[in-house]
């Protein structure tokens, strides 16, 4: 039986040329990227109490109509950590949303301090898990911001001070703020300016809020019947012995 016929030389030369051409081509490169993934959408937590303003957890304040409906984030064009309408010495604001924004500023609220605080006073209460929860909770109205249970003690009734819920005593902090201040006790009805002027001194109104605490007043006044924490122009107050019986606080006997 006859074997296969050899290929013509022309065909062999053509095959050799094709082999050389393929050998000169670069190494094939895969066109599929394996390091790419889906970009996670940026989502924000935001306040929902206000009718006109909203604050997000990045510290921005915006109108309710300008917030992103998908991410719930405010536009980043405005001021971040804005303290508009706030009193820095009291850490209180006249707007809930700006109170939250101001509170989120790391220079005003330390995360390590917040995570140690309890959400409420009971022993079983848990602690805050993040700064945003602390700010949104602390800036809400509380019994400490009202007087006579039907009126605000001040227009600046949204406060975020860490010391309000701290387990430590605030007496040392108050004493430190009174360094260099000469405390003078006036007569009933006398103003701070009048009492200080008679003695050749000047009144320092910014320190009155520090003075109006039972632990401080008891050092300069008798308070024999006890000092009671409250709010108002005449608070804290002492129940004096000569007070009418109908106005005295009645205690339940056990």
UniProtKB/TrEMBL annotation:
Q: What is this protein called?
A: SREBP regulating gene protein
N-terminal signal peptide: 1-31
Q: Which UniProt keywords apply?
A: Glycoprotein, Golgi apparatus, Membrane, Signal, Transmembrane, Transmembrane helix
Q: Which GO terms describe its biological process?
A: positive regulation of SREBP signaling pathway
Q: How does it sit in the membrane?
A: Single-pass membrane protein
Spell out the Pfam families in the cross-references: SPRING1
Q: What is its main location?
A: Golgi
Residue ranges spanning the membrane: these are none
**This protein's GO CC annotations:** Golgi membrane
Q: Which family does it belong to?
A: Belongs to the SPRING family.
Location in the cell reads: Golgi apparatus membrane
């Amino acid at each position: 039986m006859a074997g296969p016929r050899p290929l013509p030389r022309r065909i062999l030369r053509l095959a050799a040329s094709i082999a050389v051409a393929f050998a000169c081509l670069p190494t094939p490169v895969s066109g599929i990227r394996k390091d790419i993934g889906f970009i996670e959408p940026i989502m924000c937590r935001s306040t929902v109490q206000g009718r006109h303003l909203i604050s997000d957890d990045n510290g921005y304040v915006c109108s309710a109509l300008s917030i992103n409906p998908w991410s719930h984030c405010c536009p980043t064009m405005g001021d971040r950590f804005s303290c508009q309408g706030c009193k820095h010495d009291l850490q209180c604001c006249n707007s809930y949303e700006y109170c939250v924004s101001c509170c989120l500023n790391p220079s005003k609220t330390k995360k390590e301090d917040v995570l140690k605080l309890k959400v409420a006073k009971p022993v079983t209460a848990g602690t805050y898990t993040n700064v945003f929860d602390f700010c949104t909770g602390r800036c809400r109205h509380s019994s400490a911001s009202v007087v006579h249970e039907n009126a605000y003690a001040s227009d600046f009734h949204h406060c975020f001070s860490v010391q309000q819920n701290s387990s430590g005593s605030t007496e040392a902090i108050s004493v430190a703020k009174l360094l260099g201040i000469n405390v003078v006790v006036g007569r009933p009805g006398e103003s701070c300016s009048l009492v200080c002027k008679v003695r050749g001194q000047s009144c320092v109104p910014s320190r009155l809020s520090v003075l109006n605490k039972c632990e401080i007043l008891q050092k300069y006044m008798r308070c024999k019947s006890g000092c009671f924490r409250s709010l108002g122009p005449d608070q804290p107050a002492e129940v004096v012995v000569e007070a009418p019986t109908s106005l005295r606080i009645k205690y339940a006997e056990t």
